[in-house]
Design brief:
The structure is a single chain. The chain has a 4-stranded antiparallel sheet with strand order 4-31-30-29, with no helix packed on it. It has 4 domains: 49 residues, Herpes Virus-1 (2-Layer Sandwich); 80 residues; 313 residues, Methylamine Dehydrogenase, Chain H, CATH 2.130.10.10; 110 residues, no CATH class. Strand 19 and strand 20 form a beta hairpin. The C terminus is likely disordered. Helix 7 packs parallel to helix 8. With 620 residues, it is α+β, with helices and mostly antiparallel strands.
Length: 620
């Protein structure tokens, strides 16, 4: 038996289980290691497929052909033939390699030619660019002259604020700062125990359900009954809580609206959107129209801030810029780029100080920066948060600021530029919004739920509101005197938390509202605040008697026990006392006792009462 490879008697014979051929073990093992196949049948072959044969260990005789000269010549001839075949295969392989090498050389030559051509074109373009840059100053000067001739219609950003604008900002800040020092906290601000009694009073479905989410909200300067909401459905809605109807839907943005603000009055609004625009809306009859679209920024507009003068706007965007706009001229006055913020993902939120001279910006990389709006300089930076800054709010006291991020809420003292308190409302879960009330006594926080912290209670939780969607809260806002908390959540519902309807009724004072300029609003009067006394306010026409009767009857139907408190004394006069008797009789109150509408005793109160039947002028 001979080896199928060498043709000799194998010393260690093995047989392939697949083909049955006999091989010398050392030869077939080498072939398997090199090719992994049977050298005869080309089938896949492994060492496990070999079966070793056991033979006797006697001296093996030479094969018969090798025992004679003709046999040896035959063996030599076979060896020569094998060598020639191998040489032929090597020549074929050599020709193939030469062809591949030639092809590679041609490719290399072509690539060198292309590179040389591109370099020549590049040099030519550079020369053209140098010529254009030398000619640019003259063309730029001519273009600037044309823009100056066009005036504000050009709406091009300028280098900075003009001295007139800077003076106006300074004067406004000085006036507000002086007024703040003299202003006392209103006596009608809700007490902590009042807020602790707040419950979910109403839920108002707004925006589209398919793209639910109220991302921001603002209360109308004309009264907290009208609320503006910014939705994830790319629209802004104005909702009248008193009339329980949508006043207007502002459509024009193409992506979600991140922020909305009233600009001085209910007639003008500003909104910022993910479509990289800031829009200015103005009332036209019963609807609103887009008066102007600012598109100076190249990132999502995440915040819009209204200056206390109501003449200027500031918008912050995710491209790391904030822009200062003139509302009357509908022009971008200046645009400030923050390279550090842009490198860290851009701005994520912004807020303006109540005095209007300080702008605070929050970034996606957890940095909080303070800017001086007149000089557009970064004057301070606060570190300490972890994660994206999601909300900023200034207290009306002028020196407290709250910021929130994924690690909770931090409180900053602007006088000492330090963090003096940190809150972790949700044990590691992100906090989405913060808002101080106007008195500065309470801080609203939104995240997994909505909650209120008391400033004078050492920042302890006064109330937690869990009647919110599982996806959490996006925006919180206090009503007047912190008598209500408005919540915009991840669904499309606006929620209002307030005291039950049997809470104490604030004192009714038409003269207080007349002094505040709320005259002929067409909405009537909201019953809250102040003190009315016949001794000092004896002018009581018949129309006012009817309205007072309506107020008392409404309070009585709400569960109050309307009784008249003596306020006027003897100085009220006979006519006034007669009118008071008729009022008490109409209201079902006892006929004895003297005096006015100063208070309704007991714990049952009507919070907000609208007398819409008559204008304010008929009351006075």
């Amino acid at each position: 038996m001979l080896c199928s490879i060498s043709g000799t008697v194998p010393e260690v014979p093995v047989v392939s289980k697949k083909s049955g051929h006999l091989y010398e073990k050392r030869l077939i093992v080498k072939v398997i290691q090199e090719t992994g196949r049977d050298p005869v049948t080309s089938e896949a072959l492994s060492e496990d497929d070999l079966l070793e044969l056991t033979t006797s260990q006697v001296v093996k005789p030479r094969p018969t052909p090798a025992t004679s000269i003709p046999g040896l010549l035959s063996l030599f001839q076979n060896e020569w033939d094998s060598t020639m075949l191998e040489v032929h295969q090597l020549r074929q392989s050599l020709n193939t390699v030469r062809q591949e090498l030639s092809h590679a050389l041609y490719q290399h030559d072509a690539a060198c030619r292309v590179i040389a051509r591109l370099m020549r074109e590049r040099d030519g373009y550079r020369q053209q660019l140098e010529v254009a840059q030398r000619a640019l100053p003259e063309a730029g000067g001519a273009k600037r002259g044309a823009e100056e001739a066009e005036g504000p219609a050009g709406k091009k950003p300028k280098a900075g604020l003009t001295p007139d604008i800077a003076d106006k900002l300074t004067a406004c800040s000085n006036d507000l700062s002086k007024g703040r020092k003299k202003r006392a906290v209103s006596g009608t601000v809700a007490a902590p125990e009042d807020i602790a009694a707040y419950e979910l009073q109403s839920t108002h479905p707004l925006h589209k359900t398919s793209k639910g989410g109220i991302l921001a909200l603002d209360l109308s300067p004309a009264g907290e009954s009208v609320v503006a909401t910014a939705g994830a459905d790319a629209s802004v809605q104005l909702y009248d809580r008193g009339a329980e109807r949508v006043l207007a839907t502002l459509s024009g943005h193409t992506k979600k609206v991140y922020d909305v603000k009233f600009v001085g009055s209910q007639e003008v609004l500003a909104s910022g959107s993910a479509d990289k625009t800031t829009k200015l809306w103005r009332a036209e009859g019963d609807s609103y129209a887009c008066a102007h679209t600012f598109s100076e920024q190249s990132g999502d507009v995440v915040s819009v801030c209204v200056h206390p003068t109501s003449d200027y706007l500031i918008s912050a965007a995710s491209d790391g810029t904030w822009a200062f706009y003139d509302v009357a001229q509908a022009a971008c006055v200046t645009q400030v780029a923050d390279d550090a913020a842009a490198a860290g993902g851009g701005y994520s939120c912004a807020a303006l100080h109540p005095d209007g001279l300080i702008l605070c910006t929050g970034t996606a990389d957890a940095a909080v920066r303070i800017w001086e709006t007149r000089t557009q300089k970064n004057v301070a930076k606060f570190d300490g948060h972890e994660g994206r800054i999601s909300g900023i709010s200034f207290s009306e006291n002028g020196y407290f600021m709250a910021t929130c991020a994924s690690d909770g809420v931090k409180l900053w003292d602007l006088r000492k530029l330090r963090n003096f308190k940190s809150l972790a409302p949700y044990d590691g879960a992100p906090t989405s919004s913060v808002a101080f009330d106007y008195s500065g006594l309470y801080l609203g926080v939104g995240g997994a739920d909505a909650r209120v912290y008391g400033v004078k209670q050492d920042w302890a939780v006064v109330k937690e509101f869990s009647d919110v969607p599982k996806k959490g809260v996006h925006a919180v806002r206090f009503g007047a005197d912190a008598r209500s908390l408005l919540v915009g959540a991840a669904d499309h519902n606006l929620r209002v938390f307030a005291a039950p309807h049997d809470a104490p009724l604030p004192v009714f004072d038409p003269f207080y509202f007349h002094e505040q300029g709320v005259v002929d609003s067409g909405m009537g009067l909201i019953a809250r605040g102040g003190t009315w006394s016949p001794a000092t306010h004896c002018h009581w026409p018949e129309t006012f008697q009817a309205a007072a009767r309506t107020l008392l009857l409404a309070a009585s139907s709400a569960g109050a026990q309307p009784a008249v408190q003596p306020k006027g004394g003897e100085g009220a006069g006979r006519a006034t006392r007669g009118r008071r008797r008729s009022q008490r009789a109409a209201a079902g109150a006892p006929a004895d006792g003297g005096g006015g509408l100063a208070a309704l005793p007991g714990s049952n109160v009507l919070h907000v009462l609208e007398l819409a039947a008559m204008p304010m002028s008929d009351w006075l």
